[in-house]
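Hi P.,

Sorry for the delay on this. The queue was packed all week, but I finally got your sequence through. Input first:
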Amino acid sequence: MSAPKPCFKLEDFYDQLPDPGFYPSSIKSARFKRSVAKNRMLQVAYTLEGVEPAYQQVADYFVLEGERLSAAGIFLARRRLVQLYRACRIFPNQGDQIEPKQLLNARLQVRLEHDEWQGRPQLRVVAYRPLQDFLDSEQQNPL
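Then the structure:
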C-alpha cells in the first residue's frame, strides 16, 4: 500500500501577517553573529504566541559594532538592547558584558509592526515590555 502523495494545503497560501501590536513571546535563541556587511550583531529569535504557525518565529537584530555604522545607529541598537534586557527582568549595569545566554527562555511581550523586505511583507519587532506587567493589567481590566 503506497503512502498518499504530498499536496499543498490551504495554510501554505496564507500570507496574512498578524495585526500590529503586542504579543506574548519567549526567547528561543540569542547569539552573536556577523552581518553580510561584516558588522558584529546580536540576533535574538522569539517564539510568538497567539499567531498563525507561519509567523510564530520572528528575529530581531542589534548591530553593536561596525566600521561603516553611524554612532547614532549603534547608540539606538544598544538602547533597544537595554530595553529588551529590562523587559526580560534582567537589569544590566554599565560595564557588564553582554551575555546572550542570559536571554534564553525569557518570557516577555514584543510589539510587532509590518515591514517590507525585498518586496515581501514581514514582521518587525519594535518594542518590548515585561510579560507580567501585561498580565497584571489584563487581570485588573477584564474584557
